[in-house]
Batch of 4 targets.
Target 1
Amino acid sequence: MRCVYLDNAATSRHKPNSVIEAVNNYLKNIGCSPGRGGYECSLKAGRIVLETRLAVAEFFNVPNPEQVIFTHNITHSLNYAIKGLLKKGDHVVTTSMEHNSVVRPLRSLEKRGIIGVDFISCDDTGMLNPEDVSRAIRDDTRMIVITHASNVAGTLMPVREVAQIAQKHNLFFVLDTAQTAGVYDIDFQELNLDVLAFTGHKSLMGPPGTGGFAISKRAAREMVPLIEGGTGSISDREYQPDFLPDRFESGTMNTPGLAGLKAGIDFIKEVGLNEIRGHELALAKKLIEGLEQIKGVRIYGPRNINLQTPTISITVEGFDTGELSFVLDNEYGIMTRSGLHCAPLAHRTIGSFPEGTLRFSIGYFNTEEEIDYTLECMERIVGR
Amino acid sequence: MRCVYLDNAATSRHKPNSVIEAVNNYLKNIGCSPGRGGYECSLKAGRIVLETRLAVAEFFNVPNPEQVIFTHNITHSLNYAIKGLLKKGDHVVTTSMEHNSVVRPLRSLEKRGIIGVDFISCDDTGMLNPEDVSRAIRDDTRMIVITHASNVAGTLMPVREVAQIAQKHNLFFVLDTAQTAGVYDIDFQELNLDVLAFTGHKSLMGPPGTGGFAISKRAAREMVPLIEGGTGSISDREYQPDFLPDRFESGTMNTPGLAGLKAGIDFIKEVGLNEIRGHELALAKKLIEGLEQIKGVRIYGPRNINLQTPTISITVEGFDTGELSFVLDNEYGIMTRSGLHCAPLAHRTIGSFPEGTLRFSIGYFNTEEEIDYTLECMERIVGR
């Protein structure tokens, strides 16, 4: 049977060979803990971490590589930002299109009486009106946290406008780039970001178990580290170091994963962001146009590749999305994701709660022919 | 040049081939995100995580696999235990031989006025007197947290006695098994543990970026999750689920790493804990006895393989340990770790602060011949 992977919003698949080789090379030929011993091999491992840090800093235009922190995944990064920066009495502005990695930490702090939160309602295509953000700012507002693009409907958020609002009111600005890093240009300095949270294993092409965040100097001064412990630095002290990146990185890192992440970023640089985005969006356009021709299909989100990522959510009249997803996989080898995608608020916003949607998410390795095949199969299932 | 790896207390090297193959197999042939979609391949990835959970539960005799939580590394596990369980006004008893992964979170909570801590002084071999633990218990004591063995001097702690004290006073008992899991028998139920923190990449033979903890039901009920977000479960809810393991696992896991960890545990089961421990301790005995013959060498710790792990710290009269470590690597290809090993309190305890020690740490892949060679080289360097 054919095998068409359309779940790239969950993780990119498969990784470039160079990524798999980099992981393998670390495990086979290096295998030491980085930078905590003076011997040659441990310095080699330390160099891998440093090179990955430099690559991430360059990729997002972060002024200094030490402002790049590595974490287990982007959920950890967002928790560090939210729980590490917010204090009792703070108010936060966010959107109704957020993933649970933002919603749950915020709801948790709110429930414990620590913060107040406003979830700005987006329209039913998932679009945020920046004026609504402006209107929600209060005297005690201290942070704006938004996703760069919805993981459900693909909707791109007006980040530039929101960045200006954050800057005008001198607020921390936290951006969740889970769905965009590796496809769209993201400039840490231009957006005046305080925290740019990224995942390594989606469009950055790295392995799972990688991610992190870039942090502004002012946010770094205020952020309380959620995790403390051995850093290999100032080992004579019983307190966490106060310098970057050590302040926010404790314990042994996922060095093989970081070796893979570096190779992933190299791959993207070699192909070029424009080429990647152009390819993915062309396929998304084809898929949207094809789905629009199929009777009973409802497409959520902007339905316009200038306003969205190549992630497309649908429902089909008379079909259960879970069943549809199962048939696509089981009978045709097409892998999609159905349900609520860890984003209940987003589904409420676009009107697909609690049933959820069937989500197609396109990646760089998908082909035009795969989209044709997917459309054919959809016709066959829905038409029968 | 020869290559003798004696830094196994930092990470085991190299991993068994089956571990590298398991990581590779996931990246090449699976590559999906686990269990969050209904398609076959994502279920396969979910099965990998489940099988690893089952393997860890069986290995440590944890009653239910859902009581096994995976984290980025053991430092994260210890932070979850300490920061997730302790509340304002609590008192904690720990030892002077702890790693900074325990010391720093405790010092941080203490500094913020949240908890009180007593660091029980161990003797200059690193040995803990359980009666001192008993004496330190106060009415407001809520937790005992100790390392199973020192990462500096190898000293094994009297865990059974401490377990009884914890049980008698109805305290949370948290054990750091970074230096022992995969070499010594550790029985979660027999020790009546509340949190058994483990690392995946040391003697459990898994890749870096793996670790976790086993948690008792009573501790799970009280532990506040430090990280919250998408769990792939009850996605209709804006709050963290309250069931295990999801309550403490958010975001995409290091699935390739966990595939490797499963293979590592399988490797240990195949060889047998007794065989592994016997081999390592025989080499440690040889190394200790050999070092005792070299003029000017001072060996720290128990110097008795019944009372310690195969980790041996030394200083040499007239030599800087950093320089010694460098010469061992540079001229003879012997990899050791010098300095304070992220454990300043432990070095104070054994009398090697602030200079630190040179640490040899033996693993299963070391050979008798390598120990002979190391002793020869030490003779040559120190004697010249």
Target 2
Amino acid sequence: MALIVQKYGGTSVADPDRIRAVAENVKITKRHGNDVVVVVSAMGKTTDNLIALADSVSSTQPGREMDMLLTTGERVTAALMTMALADIGVDAVSFTGSQVGIITDTAHRKAKIVEVKGDRVREALAAGRVAVVAGFQGVSTDKEITTMGRGASDLTASALAKALDADACEIYTDVTGVFTADPRIVPQARKLARIHFDEMLEMAGAGSKVLALRSVEFARNHNVPLHVRSSFTWEAGTWVTNEEPNVEDPIISGVVTDVSEAKVTVLGVPDRPGISAALFEPLAAANVNVDMIVQNTSTDGTTDISFTMPIADLGEAEEIVRRVAAEIGAQGVTHDRDIAKLSVVGAGMKSSPGIAAKMFRTLADEGVNIEMISTSTIRISVVIATADLERAARTLHTAFGLDSGQAYSAPLPERT
Amino acid sequence: MALIVQKYGGTSVADPDRIRAVAENVKITKRHGNDVVVVVSAMGKTTDNLIALADSVSSTQPGREMDMLLTTGERVTAALMTMALADIGVDAVSFTGSQVGIITDTAHRKAKIVEVKGDRVREALAAGRVAVVAGFQGVSTDKEITTMGRGASDLTASALAKALDADACEIYTDVTGVFTADPRIVPQARKLARIHFDEMLEMAGAGSKVLALRSVEFARNHNVPLHVRSSFTWEAGTWVTNEEPNVEDPIISGVVTDVSEAKVTVLGVPDRPGISAALFEPLAAANVNVDMIVQNTSTDGTTDISFTMPIADLGEAEEIVRRVAAEIGAQGVTHDRDIAKLSVVGAGMKSSPGIAAKMFRTLADEGVNIEMISTSTIRISVVIATADLERAARTLHTAFGLDSGQAYSAPLPERT
């Protein structure tokens, strides 16, 4: 008998029909002799709607109160899911994050897990019941209700899988797995049968929305294999594990595209110590999530500094940057919303030099201009014009051998 | 410095504008030097919507899961109210029923309060903060989330007022107080400045919707004076207290009308012991809330038994009654949806004989036929045809001296 943690995202439980469909899948899993823990997100756009409600009531939104508000979404789903299970003869019981003992620190809206007790889940499983857990939430060491940030229901699932020593952690979403590229941009993209934690981490960092970065980080650090799959097709998805790739595997696992960022450039910055700190400290204080930063070597005693950040934060960031630019005597500030980030990710990169060169050559041959470059051991990211994105992504996908018919491994056997 | 508990019902917090208006009133109360505890209901039709959602997901609705579901409504309001207060500079903090230590028994959906701890509310007040409490809910002795039945936010307020030894408990609703009759039916109805707990209890039992019966019962048993008033006009409302009426007060405090019930009659019931039990036990088991019961003396060895119950339960009740009627050899079952219950309530009745006779004579003079009669020490209720209700209620209102211009006491001074 295996213990399986299943997490269902917002689109998977968006309405009563979807909730009943998920309940059927839980019943099938249970009937196969497994113990099942179900982690649920809020239904559809519930969290967004609650945030909009808060916005219309008050511009002052203490984190503690936002957490009191937002945690209700997952509780509603958990209660409804438990009823749907009862309706088809599956004995189930719902739990809040607090009730299952997901203990966090006291940082409201972005709490970190300190400990997962899980006693009530263990009792429920021992009694032959399905445990349905409201995701995204915990209780702080100060006994306050906390949330762990957007997408943190994945984190709830991996943390419970770890604490309960589960045999599998299935992340059900609205796509059938992790793809070599976003199929809306690169039609020849393929679903990966498996991917290494490190690659998944880099993909999430590069803008892939399939799994939240923090959840992958937790799963990697605690070695909780994740199975990302669709609650609409129920077909086998992508396993995210710590399995090293084979030598026969392609060097690159995927091409990741991201159009959610804007670029800000500070022109003619005096080249002296402390300038970068002067610029990025106030941005950090304002919670602006700066992504790529590029600074060239100074030639005439001044340099240009460019960075990317979420478009949503552009207004706030530009205000700060203009103020700092004036203080430090820079020549000016420009911004560009029409940029895209394009990354190639692959664990094979570590042992295979020349990937960056190949990427730059491929883009050059397509006439795509590169504005910024940033690299890690297993990822190369470039910033290009949004208008070039589709063409560039498709070309790289082909150049790195990711197109259909070039599958690099047979799918793993489906769950029994 | 006084401690005031204020409870705001669903219509009082139905939308962001209403929530901000309520926050302003809390701020005014606080600025007058009072400590304030705010108890909130779910916004508008939230609870009904959640129940509809549960209905569309599952016909199996375990009480524990319904409580997990329904308690989210009040939590949303509590969080939003606290943010609205913060926005106008009032330091506030929200609490769930569990967090304030409203300990109940384990009967989900109709839990009874066992104990109110209130420690966190006391701490918040001591720190100069407003405590905003989610109504309607508690935590059971088994550490499960419970609810205390529809309208139980009033109960939360009175129980907290008692536990905290509050100076006043204000129940804000969408009417300006308790009236001598429903103004939609009796236009000359007047707002009462005060009313005795016992009269309010009888009014609630007779169908008045201003206060939930259990809340009045609790307030009476623990002597918590309630001030029923409107969150739309903020004018002084009606005090519900244990103050005995003056001899100059009218004998009757109000005329109460109720069209929510239907009448069922079992004809030709054999007159032998155990028949009533055979009939009403299965109804009780099916949770049918039987109200008035009338059985006449047998003449020919058989008798007729009539009773009233909520129209909503009529289908279920009739099925049970037809089965039992066949078993006990009764001649038949009839039902009537077009009936209304009309009651006069007044503490003065105890010391003033002849009220019933006067009521019956007044109705007879108006040509109103009485179908059933039931009495308590301070209430007389009759069942009549719905078509006669308006005329009958207005006539009684006049006959018992309740029309405008006959006010029986000056309003109490408004809160300072």
Target 3
Amino acid sequence: MIIVLKPNTPSDQIDHIVARIHELGLRTDVSRGVKRTIIGVIGEEDVLRNAPLRAIPGVEEVVPILKPFKLASREFQAEDSVFDLGCGVTVGGGALAMIAGPCAIEGEEILLEIATSVKAAGANILRGGAYKPRTSPYSFQGLGEDGLKILRNVGDHLHMPVVTEVMDPRQVDLIDRYTDIFQIGARNMQNFNLLSEVGQTKRPVLLKRGMSAGVTDLLMSAEYILAGGNKRVILCERGIRSFDNSTRNLLDLAIVPNVKGLSHLPIIVDPSHATGRPDLIPAMSLAAVAAGADGVHIEVHSCPEKAMSDGPQALLPHQYRELMQQIRELAGLFHKTIPAARGVAP
Amino acid sequence: MIIVLKPNTPSDQIDHIVARIHELGLRTDVSRGVKRTIIGVIGEEDVLRNAPLRAIPGVEEVVPILKPFKLASREFQAEDSVFDLGCGVTVGGGALAMIAGPCAIEGEEILLEIATSVKAAGANILRGGAYKPRTSPYSFQGLGEDGLKILRNVGDHLHMPVVTEVMDPRQVDLIDRYTDIFQIGARNMQNFNLLSEVGQTKRPVLLKRGMSAGVTDLLMSAEYILAGGNKRVILCERGIRSFDNSTRNLLDLAIVPNVKGLSHLPIIVDPSHATGRPDLIPAMSLAAVAAGADGVHIEVHSCPEKAMSDGPQALLPHQYRELMQQIRELAGLFHKTIPAARGVAP
Amino acid sequence: MIIVLKPNTPSDQIDHIVARIHELGLRTDVSRGVKRTIIGVIGEEDVLRNAPLRAIPGVEEVVPILKPFKLASREFQAEDSVFDLGCGVTVGGGALAMIAGPCAIEGEEILLEIATSVKAAGANILRGGAYKPRTSPYSFQGLGEDGLKILRNVGDHLHMPVVTEVMDPRQVDLIDRYTDIFQIGARNMQNFNLLSEVGQTKRPVLLKRGMSAGVTDLLMSAEYILAGGNKRVILCERGIRSFDNSTRNLLDLAIVPNVKGLSHLPIIVDPSHATGRPDLIPAMSLAAVAAGADGVHIEVHSCPEKAMSDGPQALLPHQYRELMQQIRELAGLFHKTIPAARGVAP
Amino acid sequence: MIIVLKPNTPSDQIDHIVARIHELGLRTDVSRGVKRTIIGVIGEEDVLRNAPLRAIPGVEEVVPILKPFKLASREFQAEDSVFDLGCGVTVGGGALAMIAGPCAIEGEEILLEIATSVKAAGANILRGGAYKPRTSPYSFQGLGEDGLKILRNVGDHLHMPVVTEVMDPRQVDLIDRYTDIFQIGARNMQNFNLLSEVGQTKRPVLLKRGMSAGVTDLLMSAEYILAGGNKRVILCERGIRSFDNSTRNLLDLAIVPNVKGLSHLPIIVDPSHATGRPDLIPAMSLAAVAAGADGVHIEVHSCPEKAMSDGPQALLPHQYRELMQQIRELAGLFHKTIPAARGVAP
């Protein structure tokens, strides 16, 4: 950590700051420049994070040097994490998670129809929401446990691992009985109690980036889960808020190689929520794979105009099939594989 | 609701769309322009919100006309809401809520010292966090129930209503036993289950705007609380994410008159979290009152450099006292009052 | 255009609005809903753009239906524009413009060295700045006409078309004597006089997206050039301002398919300025091609640490060569070609 | 300047970096931490700005310590700048510039009518555009020199200094003959050639903040004008791009005290362009004055529905009169004055 002092900070203020740092068991290196004095702090930076140095008179700026995340960092683990997600599906290390399904679970028949088609197209994980975070209290909020049962049945029937969103720490035990993977939605990326709670389960967690989260914020939220002992966190870019309303959110694909440099965790991309526009999803899915993403998360519905949630952003099954064809070729070019879901669900 | 069709949409597609709308019990008004056809929908727009019209072939855009919030709207209640918050303190209708206190509750002695000074300066509500939403799992997370007890004791002792943050639906009952007002933090503004839960209590709720929430998003989150039967929601602007990192967040004061036009709910301003800089807090507090805010929320700490959370953004007690002097004069100019906290807490 | 009226707008106000529209030679379709009245305007919408309808009492919102750009739109020209850029290089219709070179022209020897290496790697257009838009008046501002001469010489020598930035309408004639393609930088995207001026030349224009420009803003700026009679506009995405400062700007790749839907103009991507980080440029270049971009613009310098402008974001020649290898394979997969620069410059 | 090295940077890389810095005539202070080595650079930091240190192998981050602006900084001039603007009007040091008038100059009669009413209400500077930066090439672009003549006549007649926008370096001489103050619009804030050009005139410059400019960007653009020898720069906050489209832009009032800390230059606020909504302008004008702004810039039109540009955001003359009444009272509370425009124009 580097502490930049204000111009002309008097000696007694400098001594006061240095004394504070020594109290914390750290060493200092005071560098007097032509215009400013700078104090380098030598030792375990974490001790300082809680100490509000910026509040001390004379301090102009405090510049952290070390990253605040540990377990999520490449420095902690150099090689890519590779996880088993069930039914022979892995993610990371060149294996792509192709997650597909409707926004909300609406019934067994329709889910089975969609799931059958996306599996045939090459999807290896089935998604569907039973508890939906809706901005309006008057909108359809999901089928709840009935939806979970349907999802489990369809996943078992087709031998596909399933993923569904958990919104509330009180739902963790219930959902744990039905799902293979927990999803934490963008709006809950900094719901720290929920993160801690899924951090104590044994299920992989799909952690979606919050709409105004920077890359460090995302990795710090992953750190909450990892710190609880759960090592299987999959990050997911799904668009951030921006000024251009021609798309629902702004897809930030540069976060993919950015995360790859900072962390060993896999990161996938959700172009459905990012763009909200089916006409842009194919191009953005291909771009995601080319950018090095470990998977793509796409909403598919066989009758978007009757979907109970987010219908307009879903691909039709035949559009998904065509897209998967292209993704497979592209994955081949980059020596990536799309593991087939098979066998008995875990 | 207005449905704009793509250029040259064939008649059978138009008929299909019209038929869908009629199925929902609504009437249509089809207007054929030179380049496009537009369908006006006449009737209860809410029925349509769940129907994903944009997914129907031929539809280019769907333009909602009515606001999605009801109970929070000025159309539902024309006059300003005025709430009793305890100890003679009200908010709304010209009465200002002056909330002050430390970021986190650290101990009874220090809280009493800070609270005594801010009350003497004119603050009428005491704040302090017992459960802290920290971006790092390794940071101080608050004193928990011990902190709540301290807050209650100090509030009772000084006859001030108290406000503290609730982060988890499982904490609602516990915190309800100690606090006068629930605070929902920015990161939980769209934690819909938490909103529903406090919506079923009888305590006022201070709802902070999320970092990437628009004015409609904020009012929709208030709607969740109101829909649960709890009418006492106080909105709070606390800065949004922006590209300029010279301040912690970007204070959006225009939301104050914007909300006043759309809603009857009171709205206060938190310049401490918005700017993160004590040197900007006084000017922004005065600007907030001049903009028509129903109160100001300011962090105060008697020793910011020893604060366990967010010390650098706190005002010192004497700075708060000087600022309150100016706020009082300004409030007088605008015929606003700052009710004194007194008597026995409710 | 649709005019949404406030609830309970009195009849005389409605009549007044209708009369105004009729004055402009347009027809109206008044649709009285349960809660609101809506007026559809039938006729040439452009007439209305200058008429500030929102200022008329009773009007709540004015919703335009038609796009404000004409010559740039797909509706004006359905098939992709394909341009000749000189030396056998074309862009659009499956041909990729691979622009490479240093940020600033620093001398003939170094430019020739860089240009030779990028041409050997497959670049088909040479870039270099002679006039640099620098945020500080004390920074290196470019070599001016001396730089232009160097660029022309190197371009002629290697038979590569060259592109350089024009910042001032007074420079257009001078730069026109040396360059093959004008570049309009992001900061000048809405310098409308400059746009008009290059719109009257016969040279292709590389128009970079402004840092806070939406897709419509970008296409409207292209419209200024097209309206002057110059049909050869190449759009360029180079990142927008965002809250996450881990990259210099935020690369918005979704604008590529978004533009393709709205316009016939080619669009290329500049990952160098977008990310400002050489470690992210390869992944973002590949993603750009996968997203459907008509080219990639990359800064290359053989000694970034001695570059006079933007050194840290440049690729080294051998990094560019490796990247071009991958881009070529990817282009092949999508049936795109990279025309070789050859023969005599135009 | 502080140079943070990557973990485990080898000694020879460190030596290479140190050697580079010494070549530039600067001294170094190398501080070897537990995890990283940090190099403090002692001497004139500006020498380093052009040297792309981040490109040197081993360098992770370069942290500048000194501000890049000089002449605009408080360190260069401690006391507030106070300027004479003509007709007895000054700005800065407690004197408020109250700029009012229509968006565009449309004719002498209408301008005189508006100007007479705003002067009677207390405005001391008249604004009006003769050259309009319009996003569409098909929109009304202003009356040009005819407009300038009208503005001059009305200003002379009423003894008010006038301000009008200059968009192009080629217009500087012409506009200089008619105006008292140059306005640089938000879209041209980084049109560096234009800034240099007005920096060589003797007229005060009203410099509007760009839509994606941070506070440092704004002050650097002011630096361009100051470096040319023109000391009279008035900054103007007019809203930045944000994600919430309920207002046209996002008014950032915190920049007012932020600038006051960093610079001696006066800063005013334009709530008309910032919000684009007349219903929000009064509250935001009052908030601006309470925040410490040195003036307010408001669009006023006597018949907004017939205005040729930006009508919907203009106040009516009687609304402006009522607002000025409130502003005067508020200014009194803060011991600010609104100099009356009088006598002969300069």
Target 4
Amino acid sequence: MDGAGKLLGLGVGPGDPELLTIKAARLLRGAQVVAWFAKSGKTGHARRIADGYLAPDAEELRFTYPYTTEFPKRSDEYRDAMAAFYDDAAERIAAALDDRRDVALLCEGDPLFYGSFMYMHDRLAARYAIEIVPGVTAMAACWSRAGLPMTRGDDCLSVLAGTLDEDTLARRLKSADAAVIMKVGRHLGKVRRALDRAGLSDRAVYVENGSTPDERIVRLPDMPTDDSPYFSLVLVPTGRATS
Amino acid sequence: MDGAGKLLGLGVGPGDPELLTIKAARLLRGAQVVAWFAKSGKTGHARRIADGYLAPDAEELRFTYPYTTEFPKRSDEYRDAMAAFYDDAAERIAAALDDRRDVALLCEGDPLFYGSFMYMHDRLAARYAIEIVPGVTAMAACWSRAGLPMTRGDDCLSVLAGTLDEDTLARRLKSADAAVIMKVGRHLGKVRRALDRAGLSDRAVYVENGSTPDERIVRLPDMPTDDSPYFSLVLVPTGRATS
């Protein structure tokens, strides 16, 4: 729309507020409207990271995910509820843009890497100007904190979701030079078994809440339980020796 | 060593100086010694990105890669020359650390993701304190600039090196949900053929010099030549539809 505001997709990084980019911080300080996704009853990870950067008079748009345990995942009901939720969020953003205000949408990590921002991009990119500011990913923060050289030379890095079934995980891990398993959470037991089958458990490192005060880093074989929070991942660095 | 300086591995991001993190900029401004790798005759990408952040009195340590076309890659001579080069760079850093000065080593993108920093980490981590600051990767900058939603839900991302042989590239691409091919440079013709064999050419986007004034973004099928610079990559976003 002519004269409409611009949608800013701002990567706010993995958790430490100092891991915002200078560009994201600048755009955030100037934003008239700041939007963010969060689970019901939670502050929202992206909103918490961005806390020190919002203009005092910024209007906030909170989008609270509808899903709880009501719908089995992958069901039609779940998909329909999520689509309706994203449709509604996009229309609330569009209303602000039509009102000639810029909207900064906060994205933990990087906006286009497993982020809800993508569902807004899908719905709004044809109608409005969008600027995307990349962010430091959770995986990069975690391997930095753990001090793990991940990929060298012509190594391949496989980024996998812990939500995959065990056979798929094991098969993909077997062909990986180096791997990151995201979205570990309550899937840690399965992730362990898949790593065992791929012969990679000895190289695996578990990280939860990377770059935050609650950070925990431990070799996966030394992790005593399968009880892990949502913000956890497993890193498998390259087995290639140094030059 | 007791009382020795600390080695800082600072990710300076993909090219735009505003894509440094606030943390990397802060540590860089305070660094007494700033080290960086560069090819012979070039300023060095990381050094150019960091230019506005160095303290006026910072001492600079430049490490110039020895390789040219003298050694065929993968030869013993090449490997030995690189190992000797990294040994020497590590000892020059160690001398400054022993002198109780902190050394900031500039790393384009992220330090532990295909970076020369890893070879310093390998040589120095047992002897000195090291702090690593993650950075925005070139791939994240490129997919942000191209506006490509890369991975959704339980998609896998495969990060591949364009230096791999065509059969390996084609095989890995066939099993990828989404992919990034790094280090494209003079391998673009081979990368095109591998993408064709995997049936992914229509989704592929070519980006060179992402986030810099020389940026070029084009659908790979519309890229008229195979003449591409070192800082180029190919993105294959997920084929999964939106929710």
